[in-house]
medium-chain acyl-CoA ligase (Corvus moneduloides), 581 residues
Amino acid sequence: ALTAKLGRCFHRCLRILRSPCRSFHGNNRLLTSQIVSYYESINQCKKELPEYFNFASDVLDEWARLEKDGRKPANPAFWWVSDEGEEVKWSFEELGSLSRKAANVLCEACALQRGDRAMAVLPRVPEWWLLNVACMRAGIVFIPGTSQLTAKDISYRLQASKAKCIITSDTLAPALESVLPGSQFLRSKLIVGRGSRAGWLNLKELLAVASADHECVKTRSHEPMVVYFTSGTTGFPKMVVQSHSSYGIGFATTGRYWMNLTPSDIMWNTSDTGWAKSAWGSVFAPWVCGSCVFVHNMPQFKPEVIAETLSRYPITTFCTAPTAFCMLVQHDVSSYKFLSLKHCVTGGEALNPEVFAKWKIQTGLDIHEGYGQTETVAICANMKGMKIKPGSLGKAVPPYDVQIVDDHGAVVPAGEEGTIAVRVQPTRPFCLFSQYLDNPEQTAASMRGDFYVTGDRGVMDEEGYVWFVGRADDIINSAGYRIGPFEVESALLQHPAVSEVAVVSSPDPVRGEVVKAFIVLAPAFVSHDPEKLTHELQQHVKKVTAPYKYPRKVEFVQGLPKTATGKIQRKVLRSKEWASI
Ligand SMILES: Nc1ncnc2c1ncn2[C@@H]1O[C@H](COP(=O)(O)OP(=O)(O)OP(=O)(O)O)[C@@H](O)[C@H]1O
């Protein structure tokens, strides 16, 4: 009888674990590792997506429960520092109670309801994280925008997104006021920071009197959770809708295997709050893994400040853009001691192998490059434990089936160039964006046959590693040769004279177009003879890569045009080159 009883009990447990609708709500017996592995197995298609899911109640509150029971490493959920020496540390419990208060503020004082949209244009202040979680709890769609946006940009975004609430800082509010009257959807305005302003509610004052009792909305997995704007590298930024599960569950594999995160880790991602990269590395990937989100609120990216922060705080995992790694190795971080740091990741643009090699020499650490878009979680990555191929994007991250396809959506053989694509037939991955907001044409245009196409060109090698060639628009077609800017830029960066470089097409009467390099010189080379230097750089490229790729035109410049995220806008340089034609 006892065996039969045990057998029944075992099967009941198994049924609960396998149940598609299972949530962690109220289940106190779960272990730390089970939270991550449950969501990981959904990513690996071993378990079905639950019908209802909410990151706040199903993940964050679960970590808070384990923390309370003493079954989670004593790591804060959130650790924020500023240049002025201020510090904020929240446990998962504190994050829970503060975000419940914030949810009440949004629902009561701001009169927002489930499904309404709220736009937050804030620098890296702790309230950004609170409001993010508060919106999840209330089922409000959160729309982050970078504080580098101009009032005109914000006006466009408010109109386009039909946001009912604008949240901004006391310093940004005056500049915004001029454009707000034109936003017919806007119902409430919330200020984060000190001081009062006519017509604005103040979060701090409202939080002081808000109740910490709030029942989390039971959101459906596919319900919209957040809208992010793309960087606008190739055109006007697109509004990408992500659901509660796409970002909420989809980052489990990214966090565990690419970022190497566990509940003992402290993750620092330097991305600005307005970009999807902050959702990746400062919200979902670390928190689904129970790690601590570390934030340094610094108005400007200064390599010496980054290096000091990495030395001073027990940061274990560091993520920053390739350009930032480039600035760090140029600053030379060899003299710093990053005692806790054990894992570095990057993405968002191409990481040149030269930077990878220098970082390894200076710190002893690899940089694990990953690739993805606002529309996705990590598509490819050089994951922990895998052989790293410097210069490659790594291999497909589950559940994505990544292929290189031709113009008709047919998969091309290994070694052949095509468009990097993610299979959506017969099964569309749950962690792919839902749509471009109010733009069915653009949403449809992102599909080709059985695939979602990224718009990036690449090659897959025999081992399944994907190599980035360039954005489709950036490929140079010179006398029948197709040349990706990345390879030429990587070759040029190996030369000590080159500090930064962008390679684009330029008109040519014979070849149609030729390779042109815009180069920012390293300080020691600024006074060199430009003609001699041009020749030397051309010879250098011919030596380190196929000679037909060398830049026939070279222009030395003071700086390169970049998006607010720091990505090089080759489009701007290209347009100037072709303007006179
Ligand atoms: N590791 C990487 N190497 C090279 N490029 C990368 C890498 N990771 C991401 N990218 C580039 O960044 C893009 C995704 O960035 P994001 O979603 O911010 O929008 P964007 O393409 O920069 O802007 P927009 O779509 O508005 O032009 C990818 O499509 C790819 O071009």
Q: What stands out?
A: Confidence is low (pLDDT under 50) at residues 6-29. The two ends are 88 Å apart (CA to CA).
